[in-house]
Amino acid sequence: MSQQGYVATPPLSQAQPGVSGYPPAFGVPPSQAHFGHYGSTPQSHPSPPTAVFKSAASSGSSMPAPPGPGQFVTNGLHNGVSAHGFPPLTSAPSGSAYPPTSYPRLAPSSASTQQLANQMSAMQMSGYGHGPLQGPQLTTSSVAQPISQPPPPASGCPLTAQAPQMGPPPPVSGQPLMSQSPQMGPPPMGVSSAMGTTATASPMGMPGSFSGPLPSPGSSGFQQPPGPQGFPPQQAGPYAGQMGGQPGFPGVFPPGAAQMAGPPQKKLDPDSIPSTTQVIEDDQVKRRGQVYATNLRGQVPPLVTTDFVVQDQGNASPRFMRCTTYSFPCTSDLAKQCQVPLATVIKPFAVVPKNETPLYTVDHGEAGPIRCNRCKAYMCPFMHFIDGGRRYQCGFCNCINEVPPFYFQHLDHMGRRVDVYQRPELSLGSYEFIATLEYCKDKKPPNPPAFIFMIDVSYSNIKSGLVRLLCSELKTLLERLPREEGAETSAVRVGFVTYNKILHFYNVKSALAQPQMMVVSDVAEMFVPLLDGFLVNFQESRSVINNLLDQIPDMFADTGESETVFTPVVQAGMEALKAAECSGKLFIFHSSIPTAEAPGKLKNRDDRKLINTEKEKTLFQPVKGVYEELSKECVSNSCCVDLFLFPSQYTDVATMGSICLHTGGSVYKYSNFQAQVDGDHFLRDLRKDMEKPIGFDATMRVRTSTGFRATDFFGAIYMSNTTDVEMAAVDCHKAVTVEFKHDDKLSEDTGALIQCALLYTSIGGQRRLRIHNLSLNCSSQLADLYKSCETDALVNFFAKSAYREMVNQPLKTVREILVRQTAHMLACYRKNCASPSAVSQLILPDTMKVLPVYMNSLLKSAALVGSADLSTDDRAHHRLLVTGMGVEETQALFYPRLVPLHNIDMSSEAVPAALRCSEERLSDAGVFLLENGFQIFLWLGQACPPEFIQSVFNVPSFAHLSPDMTSIPELDNAMSKKLRSVIEHMSGQRSQAMKLFIVKQKDRSEVPFRQQLVEDKGLHGGASYMDFLCCIHREIRQLLT
Ligand SMILES: [Zn+2]
User: Are 120 and 240 in contact (CB under 8 A)?
Assistant: First the structure.
């Protein structure tokens, strides 16, 4: 408990009591569960003029509540946050408490963050309405600004300093964007991006965009991709006013530039600020197709967006584990100082591609896996054999253990066992052990899991065509139930329930000629009316089951029942699994908020007036009581709940989904479902869900070497104590984010070792242990930490932290913390790792240079944005989804992939290079595809080529396209095939079947698409990337002075 300071300091890292199922915060008494130390400055707030930017800030902070559409933080409630200072950080009470190299202004920064938040509000409210915002603005003073040269690698830190291009030349259309910097070095060879009205498929992200041959590794800067094309003024589209605007922040970047209106304002060239697509492209160029061998400690893997092949040589593949940094600071003081979270995102069941070696299985028979006597870590490459092989020292706790006689082996001259390469557990990062009965419930081998299909047959689901569609599809899907690798048939047993406000169980025993229905109308005391014949083997009962599936739609065809129950349904499924002594999954297909008289009855609590108030968080807090109890029971009975929702109005997703969240399940939502329109999307989701690799009755334990430990866990999990992560089931897409804290000093010599052990029951009913090991570096230099950071993993951590916190804190506080911590991490780098340079320069570590764009996207994500235009259920759903996500998923969600199609190379298999997510990259004559892992949009410009429209939609022109299209017809021509194959390729990479939207430029349907253009100002509030970067830069400067 001693070291809780630093991780608690970023308040997002605190476990919060009160989130059901989570352990109390590590060492943090509930009263501090508020971000006392961060939310500190309410007082600084009420009066307008505290902020520096008078115009913006004053207008913002004095702005009364009425939110405008473009507003980020809409009312004055920020004041209510709390008035505790900034304790943990400043437990070093003032700057002087820090060692000289440290970062003295931390404490006061709380005020400045508050200001920043104000400014953000102000910015959003006023930034676009004022003055000379439209169009490029140039000032001569900007030219005078130093364009930053990447400073020479500082103190062993060859990271890059990027500097802001303060004064790019006026982005006048047609004029080459030459880099201003005289120091820029070699003539830039960047490729112009496709923008304006002539978007092309030319890859944005050629390596050249950082000015020619890089002077030194990592010295990328914000150099302009100088290109032949200019930068047209804002498009005058329907959103032009709010989306392309420039920061109304005079003087943000340049030093000393006047802070008031008056002096010329700068128009920064969007190409000059760090580009995510560029970073992705650079990594692909550098590492695509390469073999990534995991033999080195602390090695930073390729990005999640890069295709590479993993060769396990002693550390877990990055597919299983990714870290926020691969070099931990040696001391907690350093960790506190930089506020970079130390975390790993573990996806224990990640799919291993076919061109990589699947996990080996180790079977020690009755002896079971070999484990350290003291810390119980499993045998792994981090154990050191000594004494001629008779004993080994545990790499985690240093305990000396005897080698069991059956496991003895001689050592070679290097001190390694001679069988090291014959044993996966001695040479690989990931492998499995067959578990013995010791690892089984009641010391009995488990039964294979079961799937129970529970279909709401109330009026709404019948009328939408869902029940008929589903029953018909199940007949096919049941033929393809998942099975153990190598097994001929599936061991999974199946059962069926239908319900509205009462439940109907079906006996589908193979001996029966007809299925039998048993009705339970007393939903208050749920029980399962039959044991024999309820859960059956599909192969044996195929004809009875198919008979049942044929009958169900007709049986309820004339139903008038519109009320439903919910928790009794879950309870029934759970009781059935319990009675059958097996784990399993409930597939619940549900239509509406459960209002029938029964346990778990819910009422509409979607009070829109709460949005943007202190109480907004209550909208996302699940109703406790029955739901909480039931979640717990489901976990202890290994009952995973997947919920497919088909609502036509509010259903309290926050509460209903909480059961899925804690049982390792998923929530799918199809609003206003119509079988003809949405059936295909739903069925693709259902197939993916049923067929995906999954383990049941899982417990995960994360062990570490001495000096640090896992303290906090985020995911679709349940925890009844502080160390064991329980999951009724865990599938290949679910990831648990684990945060670490120091207990003591870490050693640069031994590094930091992490072992994740997952005990689970396989789909075939075998009890196994899956082990993932990872070794990280430790350093007493912060530069090493920054050099080894992974932005995508950081974003995953911050998203999950923020989404957990948003049920405990006002959303505004959560957003402030995100802003503050972003600035703090970057300022700390600047202070400690970058070479000296003018404070006016924005200098970002190379590994974090696109962190701001992701953080800004997170800040304006549906869950956090606080807009009355978004449905509460959609926001709650978004929150639940993210909680279980891995790094790939959060990357795609917070920076969607935008791909131009109008001049696609038909001969190439490759998906065209992505463009930055901004309206400026679109063009009237273009066609673009955008995907974020859940949705995929085909955007058609008004002037897109008629030939394209003809080939793809079989109509003569844009004007002939119906606005209601939801699918692409299968036409026999090259363009149509190409487009469909690109979409299919993208969908294949994602965990869900993405819903396709066909969007016509300037049509109403554009709104959800435009929300995805994360570099632009948010439609529902939230800053543009440019504005956000200005804010962050400002905040950094305040922290530094
Ligand atoms: Zn040990």
Answer: no
Cβ proximity of 60 and 47 under 8 Å: no
Asked if 68 and 44 count as a contact pair (C-beta separation under 8 A), the reply is: no
State both tokens at 570.
């879950």
CA distances from residue 569 to 356, 630, 671, 917 in whole angstroms, order as listed: 42, 11, 21, 43
- Centre of ligand 1 from the C-alpha of residue 340, in Å: 28
Query: Do 826 and 1040 meet the contact criterion of CB atoms below 8 Å apart?
Result: no
How does the average pLDDT of the chain come out, rounded? 79
Residue 990 Cα to ligand 1 midpoint, Å, equals 38
Distance between CA atoms of residues 325 and 649, nearest Å = 43
349 CA distance to ligand 1 middle (Å):
25
Helix (H) or strand (E) holding 803: helix 791-805
- Classify strands 725-731 and 694-704 as parallel, antiparallel or unpaired: antiparallel
Which residues on adjacent β-strands are paired with residue 757? 701, 771
Torsion from C-alpha of 585, 591, 597, 601, nearest 10 degrees: 70
CA of 731 to the centre of ligand 1 (A): 29
pLDDT of residue 447 exceeding 70, the answer is: yes
For residue 776, what pLDDT band results from cuts at 50, 70 and 90?
very high
Distance CA 765, CA 492 (A): 9
- Please give the average per-residue pLDDT across 132-157, as a whole number: 31
Amino acid (1-letter code) at residue 540: E
Taking alpha carbons only, the member of 521, 649, 553 closest to residue 592 is 649
CA atoms within 13 A on the CB side of 180: 24
Give the dihedral sign, CA 287/293/299/305: positive
| One-letter amino acid of 801 | S
Ligand 1: centre distance to CA 326 (Å): 22
Q: Distances in Å between the alpha carbon of 356 and those of 351, 362, 689?
A: 10, 18, 23
Query: Using an 8 Å Cβ cutoff, are 816 and 805 in contact?
Result: no
Q: How many whole angstroms separate alpha carbon 287 and alpha carbon 552? A: 53
Q: Angle at the Cα of 650 (from 644 to 653), degrees rounded to 5?
A: 50
When mean pLDDT is compared across 233-237, 294-298, 444-448, 973-977, the lowest value belongs to: 233-237
